[in-house]
Amino acid sequence: MNVAASSKALPLVLSMGEPAGIGGEIAAKAWKLLRQDGPAFLFLGDPALLGGQPWRAVSGPEQAASVFRDAVPVLPLILPVPAEPGRPDVRNAPAVIAAIEQGVALCRDGRAAALVTNPIQKATLTAAGFRHPGHTEFLAELAPGGGPPVMLLAASGLRSVPVTIHCSLRQALERLNTGLILRIARATAAGLRQDFGIDRPRLALAGLNPHAGENGTMGTEERDIIAPAIAALRQEGIDARG
Q1: Does residue 231 have a pLDDT over 90?
Q2: pLDDT of res. 148
Q3: Residues 20, 85: contact at Cβ < 8 Å?
Q4: What pLDDT shows up at residue 178?
Q5: What is the model's pTM?
Q6: How far apart are CA 109 and CA 180, in angstroms?
Q7: pLDDT surpasses 50 at 5
Q8: Which of 121, 144, 167 is a domain's end point?
Q9: CATH no. for residue 75?
Q10: What's the CA gap between 170 and 127, in Å, rounded?
């Protein structure tokens, strides 16, 4: 595939992430790698973050493919305060949030194929009043109706989903229960079928304790929480193992 051949395809959108972080650098390097063959993307953020790479302001995703070979297409979100590497500024938090919101809106309106989120600095956003623990929960609020939010980490032959996210280890242990495992597993199985084209996904549920509890001698969560979830999933026709 090349950019010209894919000009009719919907572009990706990249949110700028934390301006004092690596989001701009990631976007610039991604453009250099993809500019010839695509896929094209649109950068939502301050063009000053692109490290001097050529950029062109556009009014929407529809213009991204036509300029992508020559410059980074940018839907500008100018920062109130110039970014200083390694020094996040709470005054820039609204622009960071706006980039995510605009990216989701473009996807939901059918104008972009997907949103790629650059890393955010959660402590800075929290200080500005952001009430979500991370991207995952915020995206779920912006695009409701799809079941519980699930964080999926994907490689070529493996996809991994944590049952608990964005909490301390102590909180993760407290929150773990059979019902939570069932909700996450069902959503994962549905997503693998719908989004990855895997007709019969296999779910491997990891143990919690050393040696998976060693029959209750090193913890009982496997016996009391995880095994019942596996049994219930198998009853529903989901290929779950553990």
Answers
A1: yes
A2: 83
A3: yes
A4: 97
A5: 0.84
A6: 31
A7: no
A8: 144
A9: 3.40.718.10
A10: 23
